[in-house]
Amino acid sequence: MGRPLKRKNFKLVSTGNASTGTITAVSVSHGGSHYSSGITVTVSAPTANGNVVSATVEPVVVQGVIESIAVTNGGIGYLTAPTYTINLPAAVGVSATGTEAESTLTVGNVSGIFVGMTVKDNTGDNAEIPANTVVTAISGTAISISNPLTSSVNGTVTFSDAGSGFVAGSTTISNTTANRVSIQTSIAASGNTILSQVGSRRYRILAQNGTVSNCRLVASASPTAEQCSLVAFDSAGNSYWVTKWLSNKVTIMPNALAAGQTSFQFGSVGHDATARWSYGSAVANVSVRLATEA
Fold first, then answer.
1. DSSP state of 181
2. Over the stretch 28-51, which tens digit does the pLDDT of each residue have?
3. Are residues 34 and 72 both part of a single domain?
4. How many CA atoms lie within 13 A of 163 on its CB side?
5. Percent of the chain residues past pLDDT 90, beyond the cut
6. Separation CA 146–CA 100 (nearest Å)
7. CA dist 278 → 129, 179, 286 (Å)
8. Cα maximum dimension of the chain
9. Are 193 and 277 in a shared domain?
């Protein structure tokens, strides 16, 4: 179908002006301590309405401290900085063996064990495993620990994440104004949201009343069910129906001449043409401007 539209061209319905609201960076005010490599971070939901996407991030833990937060998906619809919740992995109790004075434990199952976790013996009295011992490496079923065993181990050992104290710093949000394409459906003339492109002439639409359906671009002021219409204007103000919309060009059908105009810049009545497109202004005989909503 040619080059499809980029996601930024899909309308975001928010309170007030539409905005991409994408998180681009998160700083760390305080990295805390005793975190393991098994922690995850949950980002609170966007506060905009409509076609929003929650952000995802990954913590970078070095020697128990969260040194940085990497943004893996900036999301869409963040009007203000979200909150970040640290999720600690569940404690794991497994059967383990180890020899006195050595810094290695052999376990039956390493599932749920992460570097940085605190290690305690089955009694919790540090008789076998010294206090403040943590996992330093995992290789197969061998667990390297930070302190040598005070006596041999043969029983249940508990691995847990004792992390605390993280405080997020500032959040950088990209608030580039999103272009709001005015696409009309049989349900409403405006306020419809393009969710995705399913073909060069077909789109998945969230209608103003909340229903979701696919529609096909048609040259009509009164689209019926499964149809939608989009208008474009040339530099003289002549209007066109958009019948095909791709990332770099549109196929257009002349609709109506502007006052004082005697001919269209693209095509003729009953005959379509192609042109480049933009949201801002049209260039004579080169591009058209798509109709947008405020």
1. B
2. 999 999 999 999 999 999 876 555
3. yes
4. 31
5. 64
6. 14
7. 68, 10, 11
8. 97
9. yes
